[in-house]
Design brief:
The chain is an alpha/beta fold. The protein folds into 3 domains: 4-8 and 466-576, OB fold (Dihydrolipoamide Acetyltransferase, E2P); 53-252, inorganic pyrophosphatase (n-terminal core) (Alpha-Beta Complex), CATH 3.90.1640; 360-463, Diaminopimelate Epimerase, Chain A, domain 1 (Roll), CATH 3.10.310.30. Helices cover 40% and strands 22% of the residues. The protein contains 20 helices and 21 strands. The strands form 5 sheets. It has a 5-stranded parallel β-sheet with strand order 3-2-4-5-9, with helices on both faces. A hairpin with a 2-residue loop joins strand 18 and strand 19. It is globular, with a radius of gyration of 25 Å. 43% of the residues are buried.
Length: 578
Amino acid sequence: MHRRWVVKRTNQDYLKYLSKNASISTVLAQILVNRGIKTVGEINAFLYPNISQLSDPFDIEGMEIAIGRIKRALERNEKVLVHGDYDVDGITATSIILKVLNMIGIDAFYFIPNRLKHGYGFNNEAVEKAKQIGASLIITVDCGISSYETVAECKKEGIDVIITDHHEPIVNSDSVVKYNDLVVRSGDFLLPKAFAIINPKISRVPSSISNLSGAGIAFKLAQALAIHYSRFEIQDFIDLATLGTIADIVPLIGENRIIIKEGLKAIKESRCIGLKVLKEISGIDEKDLKTGTLLFTLIPRINASGRISDANRVMRLLLTESEDEAIEIASWLNVLNKERQKIEEEIYQQALYQLNEKGIRSVIVLSSEGWHMGVIGIVASRLAEAFYRPTFVISIDGDVAKGSARSIPNFNLFKALTKCSRFLQRFGGHKQAAGFQLIPDNIPIFEEYINKIADETLKEEDFVPLLEIDADIDFFDLNFQLMQELEMLEPFGIGNTEPLMGSKRLDVLYPRIVKDAHLKMKLRQKNQSFDAIGFDMASYLDKIGSSGKVDAVFTLCFNEWEGRRCLQLNLKALRPTQ
């Protein structure tokens, strides 16, 4: 896919000032400025995150009211139901709150909806569960911000609701009128009439907690309870908060960075039997435990249960004290994940065929009977990445159509769905990922309208991905000291991606294809040369064969072979030097 190369640049005198006063290289200073980290104080806080830097949880609107209600539940021996979600973020958030409530002496239960049976979100099945167990308080995690009807039903039954959520609240507008009797109009938003709502998204002031995951918000609730009760340490839950945060692909800045930096260490040493066993079955090398490792090992296995089976077994995995039970569930997850991969690939191929038949527009909208609800989100993500278009994949089941959407940076899904709300039965999510439901007859008009919105808001260049290069660098500056500095930027993810460096006018030496798909070579600039590997870049061999010099974009990494450790360039893009 063609990409626009953009090199980020900053005033060199300012970079020298930061370099001198923060004791870092000008290359690292440039990378940090690119991430909006522009003062010595900000640099030190970013490079050396510590759990002591966590903000006061009572700074979050609604926290004090929620803690007061939980204290009352303890004093009155009330039963509490924790309502979660079936993905990793929802499951880990549920585990955090359930464990904390039990530790302070509350009789707490949980409810994880089944994706196929109950659908997404806080719904009436949870109200029935609360009535069955005699719960007078429900705490939602990772859901509830737009569950107006269910909260109203709880109120009718005498059940209080505390909502903890991180999804976008519905904006107060004339286009959303069907909830009028069930909402509190709070500034710009329509909110359920809950006892308390903890969601940083309802604040008008962006802060270090604005992008917390559902598990991150559950962690802040636990942090607030830890101030009042000394029966647990907040560090006891940072492993679960880290899994949920990484899984939900939230920006790894602010408190998310603190949580993950500390949490990766906690996952290595986790006392949770279920996590220990799942790590072993997933074949994780704990010496190299990073965000990417978890995204391709533990997280898809945990998610597989909620996608194509029942996530309640994962709750048992995280709560069990029995190693035998943990081995049984972890082994089941391993098998289930392989089944999920097979289903996903079949639907992806069907979607590609349908797209080829329809042709590509500004927005991709695909639908079919029988597509598994549990994997259409992954399929939408793959299509959005492959074709660089906002993508909506819809599964039709009788008179109900449920969809999952993924986007590109300049197209806000939540705003677009809000504009389409007249054609939808329900929707929710974020700027870049969302879910929705509509009747099948509305799919064609929805497709037309969503494309109209995209045509009016997106420019031609928005459909060409940017290759944002952090630093234009000479090979002379590539050394072990720089590599050690770059490692201080970890953990990498959205909002703090692995730095891309670019170098120009390079000689290509000994180019060859290895393992049928990868491009290997040496690249030389003046008298400095480095080994370079381009994964899945075999097609570039013909392009560079007779081109003379090339420009390259790469990340810097260590390559270890037979006891030797050397620097290597991990290629991301190549082009003939102009």
